[in-house]
Structure formats: structure tokens, C-alpha cells
Write a structure and sequence with these properties.
Layout lengths: L38 H30 L6 H22 L7 E2 L5 H11 L5 H25 L2 H5 L5 H15 L3 H4 L5 H17 L5 H5 L1 H18 L14 H4 L19 H28 L7 H21 L6 E2 L1 H10 L4 H16 L1 H7 L4 H21 L9 H24 L2 H9 L5 H4 L2 H11 L2 H13 L6 H4 L1 H7 L3 H13 L2
Antiparallel strand pairs: 1-2
Helix pairs in contact: 1-2, 1-3, 1-14, 1-15, 2-13, 2-15, 3-4, 3-12, 4-12, 4-13, 6-12, 6-17, 6-18, 6-22, 8-10, 8-17, 12-14, 12-21, 14-17, 15-16, 18-22, 19-21
Length: about 525
């Protein structure tokens, strides 16, 4: 707690260095950011982090491939490209970016504008290739802009206007809005497997965590593997029919290729169109807002001080570089920080950067070895749904825990948090009911007074994408209200937060020493 900190000690800037232990340090942290578990243990822990995000990193390319009509023969290497980009992005972020133990991967925030772009490209036998080249161009420009915004210090500058009243609902909505009904309804009639996965993770992480160290370190991995093995056995025995969502089809592994090599510009030269770039940047903006919340969430769970403006700038800038790399490699998607692995840190207490880097190397292997990727794709969707329940619930709770720094007896603060959460859930639901950016544009064109403006494609596309992203909506509502409704710094939690935030200069000097290898 804040009262336990030494007021004489100057805050340090890099996670895990002597004297930098957060005033929020939790006894639940098994391995700190700078700690290195034994190699064998690190491999299993890295695999665990990797498995928490595999569902999203497969779901995004499958959704894009389906929307583009990509032939099935190209899909394995397309999915493999996502894992290569994820591995490289994670290594860059953990080594030269914000250096938090945070995984980088495909982002859902860019999926909506991507599907809209695909619909505009046209038809024909090579429609899928034309679509992915158009997406590449938009992603490349988006990555360059994100890189510039990061390293020019824009996001760090905004930090002084972001109190816990803003950050709390933003992080909470990462969990609440990422877990949608669709991620469990794909279980169809296999709710028993969803429930089994949840029960196993809860059992290992909460009830048996003191029984054996294995349960404390590997609750997610154990939960997935036990449920996966059971589903595989029942599938082989014919108890689970092939049409069920719980069925494990091992034939996909047998038909996979041993080696596949994703290469830059593998689909051809990207094409660039202004309207596509603007529409895609709305997704980039939503990704940046989400990542800002992720940085605070991972710092809190790792027992570190809140991120400084400089660390935020490094993180967003590096995400821009990873997104640029994703565009060059031809994913048709960008790179963002993953909430799933933050949830895993909360459940396991393993916040080691080294472990995440080991997991990143595993992602690279999966990208080049077809058998591994094919094996991962056999994890039934109900298991992924159960995993999401455990992961995203943890994220939502971590977000709300930031409210401990603010005055909750203040009706001002309670109102802002409440309306931000509600808007962050309600507006994306409305956008989902609208159905598409084109339908939203058509509806807005007939709106009185603002119709001329909102009827413009660029404006309506941007509003549709941002409005469909819960953490972007909630964060923006909270930001505007918190900085316009009268309230003292103490009431808003800014004074206490300043004491908990790492120092910019200390981060810079520690970062410089690290880059030089000192």
C-alpha cells in the first residue's frame, strides 16, 4: 500500500531493478519482470502464455481468409505468417519497446475496417489477392503513423490528462468487451467442455495453488491440456461426433506440411488508397487506446510502478514498428498488446520478461513448422471459450481495482465510471446491430443537421470502427468527462498516482544502459 513505501526513496524507471519495487508489490508475484526461471520451467511457462493467445491469433486470420475467399491451400502459410509476426513483435517490444512482459499479436480492432475494405475491393478470381494487397497498404501507413505518434511522445503527453477514473473503466472494458457471447456460443452444444475448462483453471489456480507449486505456475496450461486430452480421447473413441464443436480432428495434423516459410511481400506489392488508410487508422487508434490500458494492467499485476510517459511512448512506437512489419509480411492486420497474457500473469503470478521472450521464440517455431500450427488448431473452440472466461474476468477486475486510488465517496467519480462502462458496452452493441460500416453510413446520411457530415464515408467509417470498440468508447467518454467536470487532483486520484508512477529520467537512463549492454 502507499503508506508502506519509503517517502525518501526516489522512484526508479525500469521494471525490476533494485529499489524499483512498486508500492503495490503483491505477494502473489511468483517471478518478477527481471527474474529468470530455470530454462525447462521457462519453456513451459512461455508455452502457457502462448496458448492463452492462440485462439485470437488464429481467429483473426481465419476470419480474414474467409472474408477474402482465400483458397484453402494458402491458408496454412497465412496463419503461420501471423505467428511469425507475433513472435518478432513480442521480441521487439520486450527487448527494445516498453520492456513489459506483454505479448504482441493480431488485433480485433483492425478486423472491422479490414472486412469493410475487402467488401470494396471487388470480385474476380484474384479478389482475395487484391484485397490483401489493399489491406497491406492501409496497414503499412497505419503502422508508420502509430510509430510516429509513439516516438514523438503524443501518447505519453496525454498521460497527464489520464487519471485512474479514466484508466479503470478502460482496462475493465478490455475484459468485458473482448469477451462476447460469440466466443462461447461457438461451443454450440458443448457447454460441458466450456464448463470443464473453467472449472479446471479455477481449481488449479485458486484451490490447489498451495497444494503443489505446479498448480500455482501452470493452472492455464494444465486446464487446457487436461480438457484437450479428454476431448481428443472421446473423439477418437467416437463418443464425440465429428460434427460437434468439441470434436478434435487429428487429420489436419497428418495433412500439414513440415516446413513453411513466410516471406515479406509474399502476396505481391501493396496498393494504397486514401479512404482505406483512413478507415484502417480508426482501428489503429482503437488499438493504441487498448494498449495504453494494457500497459497499466500489466504493470499492476507484475507489481511494478505505473508506466511513465516515456515507457508508454516506447511501447506505442514499437507497436507501430510491429504493425509496419505485419503489413510488409502480408497479414492484412496489425500488432497490438494482448490482454490474454496479462490475465495469465494475474492467475499465475509469472511476470518474467524472459518467459515471454521464450514464448515468442515458440511462436516463431510454430510459424515455420506446419505440424505445430496444425496441432494448435485442433484445440476445440469450447476450450478457447472457457479460457476467455477466466482470462477476461481477471482483466476486468484488475481495471476496477485502480479505483482504490480515487475518492469513491465522490458522486462525480462514481457517475463518470458508471456512464463510461455503460457506454463502452452499449455503443458497440448498437454498432453490432447496425451490421456494417456501409449500413451505418446510409443511416447517418439521413440524420438531420449532422447528416451531411456523418454521411461522408471517411467520417462514418471512422465513427463505426471506434464506436464498435468498447475500450475506445469507454476511454474517450471517461477522458472527456474527467477533464471537464470539476474535481480536485486528490479526488481524481492523480496525487496518489503520481507517487506510484515511475520516473521518466530513471527509465531513460536504465533503458540506455540496457541497450548498451552495461
Amino acid at each position: 500500500m502507499a503508506g508502506d513505501a519509503n517517502p525518501e526513496a526516489p522512484p526508479e524507471g525500469i521494471a525490476g531493478e533494485p529499489g524499483t519495487e512498486s508500492v503495490e508489490q503483491s505477494g502473489d508475484v511468483e517471478y518478477g519482470v527481471e527474474e529468470r526461471p530455470p530454462t525447462g520451467e521457462s519453456v513451459l511457462l512461455g508455452l502457457q502464455h502462448y496458448l492463452t493467445m492462440v485462439g485470437a491469433n488464429i481467429a483473426v486470420p481465419l476470419a480474414l481468409a474467409g472474408a477474402m475467399g482465400m483458397p484453402s491451400k494458402w491458408q496454412p502459410i497465412y496463419i503461420g505468417t501471423f505467428f511469425v509476426v507475433s513472435g518478432v513483435g513480442t521480441l521487439l517490444q520486450t527487448t527494445f519497446g516498453n520492456r513489459y512482459p506483454i505479448v504482441q499479436g493480431a488485433t480485433f480492432s483492425m478486423l472491422a475496417p479490414a472486412i469493410a475494405i475487402i467488401g470494396f475491393v471487388g470480385t474476380g478470381p484474384d479478389h482475395w489477392r487484391d484485397a490483401i494487397l489493399a489491406l497491406q497498404g492501409a496497414i503499412i501507413v497505419g503502422g508508420i503513423v502509430e510509430f510516429a505518434l509513439g516516438y514523438l511522445g503524443v501518447m505519453g503527453w496525454l498521460k497527464k490528462y489520464l487519471s485512474p477514473v479514466v484508466v479503470a473503466p478502460t482496462i475493465a472494458l478490455i475484459g468485458l468487451s473482448l469477451f462476447s457471447a460469440s466466443q462461447v456460443t461457438m461451443a454450440n452444444q458443448a457447454w460441458w467442455l466450456v464448463g470443464l475448462t473453467v472449472v479446471l483453471i479455477v481449481l488449479f489456480s485458486q484451490y490447489l495453488d498451495d497444494a503443489h507449486r505446479m498448480f500455482r505456475l501452470y493452472p492455464v496450461l494444465l486446464g487446457i491440456v487436461v480438457a484437450w486430452v479428454l476431448a481428443t480421447a472421446l473423439s477418437v473413441l467416437g463418443i464425440i461426433p465429428s460434427g460437434s464443436a468439441a470434436f478434435v480432428d487429428l487429420s489436419t495434423v497428418a495433412n500439414a506440411s513440415l516446413v513453411q516459410v513466410p516471406t515479406p511481400l509474399q502476396w505481391g506489392m501493396p496498393t494504397f488508397q486514401t479512404s482505406f488508410v483512413v478507415g484502417m487508422f480508426a482501428g489503429v487508434l482503437a488499438s493504441m487506446i487498448e494498449s495504453f490500458g494494457d500497459y497499466h494492467a500489466v504493470a499492476r499485476l507484475a507489481g511494478e510502478r505505473a508506466p511513465s510517459a516515456r515507457r508508454i511512448d516506447h511501447g506505442i512506437g514499437m507497436e507501430g514498428i510491429a504493425t509496419l512489419f505485419a503489413g510488409i509480411m502480408g497479414t492484412g492486420n496489425g500488432s497490438t498488446s494482448y490482454s490474454e497474457n496479462i490475465g495469465a500473469i494475474g492467475l499465475t503470478g509469472v511476470a518474467s520478461r524472459y518467459v515471454i521472450q521464450i514464448g515468442a521464440l515458440l511462436m516463431l517455431v510454430v510459424g515455420f513448422v506446419g505440424y505445430f500450427g496444425a496441432l494448435i488448431t485442433t484445440i476445440p473452440s469450447p476450450i478457447i471459450g472457457g479460457l476467455y472466461i477466466a482470462m477476461f474476468g481477471q482483466i476486468a477486475a484488475v481495471g476496477l481495482s485502480n479505483l482504490k486510488h480515487v475518492d469513491l465517496d465522490s458522486s462525480r467519480n462514481v457517475f463518470i465510471v458508471g456512464i463510461s462502462l455503460f457506454c463502452g458496452l452499449a455503443l458497440p452493441a448498437y454498432m453490432g446491430n447496425v451490421g456494417s460500416a456501409a449500413a451505418f453510413q446510409q443511416g447517418m446520411a439521413s440524420t438531420p443537421i449532422l447528416g451531411a457530415l456523418l454521411g461522408l464515408k471517411i467520417v462514418s467509417d471512422t465513427i463505426y470502427v471506434v464506436g464498435g470498440t468498447g475500450m475506445a468508447v469507454g476511454g474517450l467518454v471517461a477522458f472527456v468527462l474527467d477533464n471537464t467536470v470539476e474535481g480536485s487532483r486528490e479526488e481524481r486520484g492523480l496525487d496518489e498516482w503520481d507517487q506510484l508512477t515511475e520516473d521518466d529520467e530513471a527509465f531513460d537512463s536504465a533503458y540506455e544502459r540496457y541497450v548498451k549492454g552495461d
